[in-house]
Amino acid sequence: MSDIIEKLQFYFQFPYVRYAMIVGLLIALCSSLLGVTLVMKRFSFIGDGLSHVAFGAMAVATITGITNNMLIIMPVTIVSAVLLLRTGSNTKIKGDAAVAMISVGALALGYMMMNIAAQNGNKRMTSNVSADVCSTLFGSTSILTLSLTDVWICVAMSIIVVTVFLLLYNKIFAVTFDESFAKATGIRSDMYNLLIAVVIAVIIVIAMNFVGSLLISALIIFPALSAMRVFKSFRSVIICSVIISLICAATGIIVSILAGTPVGSTIVSADICVFFIFCLISIVMKREK
After folding, report:
1. Radius of gyration of the chain from Cα atoms?
2. 125/76 Cα distance (integer angstroms)
3. What is the predicted pLDDT for the residue at 91?
4. Cα separation, 74 vs 261, whole angstroms
5. Is 207's pLDDT higher than 90?
6. Residue of higher predicted confidence among 86 and 249
7. Residues 234-276: pLDDT tens digits?
């Protein structure tokens, strides 16, 4: 045990490890706040779909050589969030079809463009495109190459997300549980649904380098599902979801440092373990009643 503590103390002497922990905890906090709403409103598909779109936008940014790829990824992902909601409400194109059309299309086009660029000798592309794609989809060591600027950007975005959630908590609560009643009381539910989708898009873009674009939705959904196994009230579920997400993020980062495993996969694995533990707790609680 003392060897593990000494090893952690050694690693945390380096700024990039501290930056990774700070960014990881902030992303875990933001994703868990809105994860409960997404699950209860059956919007879970949006997180998965937008993560694919973000990958496609990142491929375009890489090929064109834009230094700050956020200039492409952020607006494209936000616009896609708007399109998913608007297209999903169309009677001719249902929500699941809209997600498949936009997200899978973006994923396929992004991968195809990266391969074409590599074959044509694009200097911005490495020779091993498959490794680059795998790293982007499932997370990589880029979380350990964060600069202080990246950390401050994440801090600013996290403050915005948390502030929006706290200020609009009552509206989000109303829209989450009974959208029809919320509309009847004068709440513009469409606007708040759109706001939720936009905030999720921001979280996904921030988290891409952390867990990879394919694992972001797991980071959003699993803590909420775990908390809902045991708690019933909206506030209790959110608080529990935040705690679970923070613990799993910290545990995943520490384990990945000690064992050399991928950060994103390790965090999601921790979330899966906690989910099964809460399922067992739920079963025990039902038997005791």
Report:
1. 20
2. 21
3. 47
4. 28
5. no
6. 249
7. 889 999 999 999 999 899 888 888 887 777 788 888 999 999 9
Query: What is the SS3 string spanning the chain?
Result: CHHHHHHHHHHCCCHHHHHHHHHHHHHHHHHHHHHHHHHHCCCHHHHHHHHHHHHHHHHHHHHHCCCCCHHHHHHHHHHHHHHHHHHHCCCCCCHHHHHHHHHHHHHHHHHHHHHHHHHCCCCCCCCCHHHHHHHHHHCCHHHHHCCHHHHHHHHHHHHHHHHHHHHCHHHHHHHHHCHHHHHHCCCCHHHHHHHHHHHHHHHHHHHHHHHCCCCHHHHHHHHHHHHHHHCCCHHHHHHHHHHHHHHHHHHHHHHHHHHCCCHHHHHHHHHHHHHHHHHHHHHHHHHHC
Task: Tell me the pTM.
Answer: 0.81
Instruction: State the Cα torsion 75-150-64-81 to the nearest 10°.
Output: -20
Phi, then psi, of 188 in degrees rounded to 5? -80, 85
The pair of three-digit structure tokens given for residue 164, joined into one six-digit string: 């929006």
Q: CB neighbours (10 Å) of residue 91?
A: 5
Give the tens place of pLDDT for each residue, 122-159: 555 555 445 455 555 555 555 666 778 778 888 888 88
**Six-digit token string for 191:** 């606007």
